[in-house]
Design goal:
alpha+beta, about 475 residues, 2-methylcitrate dehydratase PrpD, four-stranded mixed beta sheet, 8 strands, 60s Ribosomal Protein L30, Chain: A, globular, 2 domains, 21 helices
């Protein structure tokens, strides 16, 4: 492993950063972007709340007991950790939430439930909540980036695995922990951080739980540390630390990334927003297919074969196992399927939440075309900086039609504007709430620095 370049342990440097961070240290543009990322997450939580797996999850949490913590878009309250678990699922459930490209992590899905839940319990101001959220985002994205895509290769989902560490420091900050306790909190959560990619094999629901579990584990670890519980110090660089334990033999994580640019470079500015509701690895290919539809309007029967060029490291996630990808069993399978998403784009010229319902998944034209979609590794990909994609269509009359997306839409090099995020919020929120209610939520979130976490919680609990 590459060294950090100094003698300080990573956990010490990160704890110092998080505990000392003040709102005024964060540039205005970063604060504004952070507020909009939170708004995006809340809009997704509203949209998810209408789906069956959300009701099932909330029913299970209610059986574990009620409490005083708010669940996004619900009138009932749960215990702190159960609310975090539920809120993480609501933000992440549609797989439409933000992604830090280099860290390959959906960071808001854990940072927001943790910062919101503890800020509400502690009676913190909105400015304190926002600062803790930023701290979690900056830490988790860097910790993820150190692995250079290596967590996925051995079957770990970075959103659950890595999110726990940033959240442990957000929790330490909101709970007023000492430096020593904040270091212990990271070491304690090392034994709790988790997230298996096995859901890819059969479309299981488990991935949706990962970010909320990261938040709940972090709150648990920070509380244990507050009471004097001792955790290991070499959380990241140790013999059995995060990277040694969760990367394959021969992997070369760059530990310097974990602390590089703290207080100078803000990773929130490199968080990508999702313009379509699917795994970020599929976006460029989806857009390429949609572009070909708009330019050529090909009928399904006119297409002999489709080849999709994707970055090598994403093949196992969105291209294999081939049989599953060509005939998704459910919406989650579909969101991680290059054949289904590309076939939908070529056939319909779009990919939206409506293309994940049961009728869309059974569309015979799309499924027939998906059978003719193959993949190959893109030798020109700039992954993980960009999630590239190219779609090549061979027609039955001998034509070769191609479109390449070298920079995925929504990435930091091709960002969604804050106004675009607001539009996306309304698209999602208005699926389940009135325009008046959505307006109230937007104003409360974008004005969070002038209010309190409790004030935001009251608005999020209101029923139409």
């Amino acid at each position: 492993m590459n060294s950090t370049g100094n003698n300080a342990r990573i956990s010490t440097t990160l704890a110092q950063f998080a505990l000392e961070l003040k709102l005024e240290d964060i540039p205005q543009t970063v604060r504004e972007r952070a507020r909009h990322l939170i708004l995006d997450g809340i809009g997704l939580a509203f949209a998810t709340s209408a789906l069956g797996y959300a009701d099932i999850t909330l029913g299970a949490m209610r059986e574990l007991g009620t409490g005083a913590s708010t669940v996004f878009g619900r009138t009932e309250k749960l215990g702190l950790r159960d609310a975090m678990l539920a809120n993480g699922l609501l933000v992440h459930g549609l797989d439409f939430d933000d992604t830090h490209s280099r860290g390959v992590i959906h960071s808001t899905a854990s940072a927001l439930p943790c910062a919101f839940g503890l800020a509400e319990r502690e009676g913190a101001g909105g400015a304190q909540m926002l600062t803790a959220y930023v701290a979690a985002m900056e830490v988790s994205t860097r910790i993820g980036a150190v692995a250079q895509g290596g967590f996925h290769k051995v079957g770990f989902h970075p959103t659950g695995l890595v999110g726990a560490f940033g959240c442990s420091l957000a929790a330490a900050k909101l709970m007023g922990l000492s430096m020593e306790a904040a270091i212990h909190a990271q070491g304690i959560v090392l034994s709790m951080a988790s997230g298996s990619m096995e859901f890819l094999e059969d479309g299981a629901w488990t991935k949706r739980l990962h970010p909320g579990w990261a938040a709940a584990s972090a709150a648990t670890a920070a509380t244990l540390a507050k009471h004097g519980y001792v955790g290991p110090g070499a959380t990241y660089e140790g013999r059995y630390g995060l990277y040694a334990l969760h990367l394959s033999d021969g992997a070369t994580p760059d530990l310097s990334i974990a602390t590089a640019g703290l207080r100078e470079t803000w990773e929130i500015e490199h968080v990508a927003l999702k313009p379509i509701p699917a795994c970020h690895f599929t976006h460029a290919s989806s857009d390429a297919a949609i572009a070909l539809h708009r330019e050529h309007g090909l009928a399904v029967d006119a297409i002999e074969k489709v080849v999709v060029r994707v970055p090598g490291p994403v093949v196992e996630v969105v291209c294999e196992p081939v049989a599953n990808k060509k005939r998704p069993a459910n919406s989650y399978d579909a969101q991680f399927s290059i054949p289904y998403i590309v076939a939908t784009g070529l056939q319909k010229g779009r990919f939206t939440l409506d293309d994940l319902d049961d009728a869309a998944l059974a569309d015979p034209a799309v499924l027939a075309l998906a059978q003719r979609v193959e993949y190959e590794v893109d030798p020109e990909s700039t992954f993980p900086r960009h999630y590239t994609g190219e779609v090549i269509v061979m027609t039955r009359d001998g034509r070769r039609l191609a479109h390449r997306e070298a920079v995925n839409r929504g990435s930091s090099d091709r960002p969604m504007t804050n106004a675009g995020i607001v539009d996306k919020f309304y698209d999602n929120a208005l699926r389940v709430v009135s325009r008046e209610r959505a307006d109230q939520v937007r104003e409360a979130v974008l004005g969070i620095e002038r209010t309190s976490a409790a004030g935001l919680a009251n608005i999020l609990r209101q029923a139409d």
